[in-house]
Fold this sequence. Notes:
This protein has 248 residues and is α+β, with helices and mostly antiparallel strands. It has 3 domains: 1-74; 80-181, Distorted Sandwich (Calcium-transporting ATPase, cytoplasmic transduction domain A); 202-248. The chain has helices at 3-9, 14-32, 42-74, 129-132, 182-195, 199-225, 238-247, and strands at 79-84, 87-92, 101-104, 113-119, 124-127, 138-140, 158-159, 164-167, 170-176. Strands 2-1-3-9-4-7 form a 6-stranded antiparallel β-sheet, with no helix packed on it. The longest helix has 33 residues, at 42-74. The protein is rod-shaped and about 95 Å long. The mean pLDDT is 80. Residues 1-26 form the Cation-transporting P-type ATPase N-terminal domain. Keywords: Membrane, Transmembrane, Transmembrane helix. Residues 76-190 form the P-type ATPase A domain. InterPro entries: ATPase_P-typ_cation-transptr_N, ATPase_P-typ_TM_dom_sf, ATPase_P-typ_transduc_dom_A_sf, ATPase_P-type_domA.
Amino acid sequence: TPFWKLVLKQFDDLLVKILIAAAVVSFLLARLNGETGLTAFLEPSVIFMILAANAAVGVITETNAEKALEELRAYQADVATVLRNGCFSILPATELVPGDIVEVGVGCKVPADMRMVEMLSHQLRVDQAILTGESCSVAKELDSTSAMNAVYQDKTNILFSGTVVVAGRARAVVIGVGSNTAMGSIRDAMLRTEDEATPLKKKLDEFGTFLAKVIAGICILVWVVNIGHFRDPSHGGFLRGAIHYFKV
Length: 248
């Protein structure tokens, strides 16, 4: 997401817009009244500083989330050695479909979630720390586990997308690509977390909208009630009187 869009997104809130309007009116009123010095513009300056700090925190948070997603994408394989038309060819990993037979060896990034079907060496070891956090490589085998609730570490016959082969060679059949992989589900969960508001945030947004409407209603009521005072000589004119009571 472009930086400027992230910044603008932080101000897409009704309460924030009201605060910006209040700061602008306060600034204009100070200018119209000919006020000078730091104290004349203290109120709008404080509002703008608070809004800027809030926007900075929001941008940093969203930037970190996007960086985490980019790091996950970096683990995706670019190519795969896949069986097509009776021979193995190197093709873009994005062209893999469930049922393809893929050959992996030392240094290969696993291009999809796959079930091992043939061992081409005496052993196959895979570094799957990115998925499970295991500090050491794990041995893979052809035998599957019978446990219904098996975790990733127990699935010794499954090669997971994004993991790296550190020893041996084997062939496996693709069982999941894209979002239908272990890494894909993690990425989708991160995207959902980023896009979906938490229950607390939803409640705060609802309260903020309600409060903003109440404040706006009170401001309009006060402004309308005092229309007769706009021409008060102490304000220096009808327009300045209108702005004064709008600020109030």
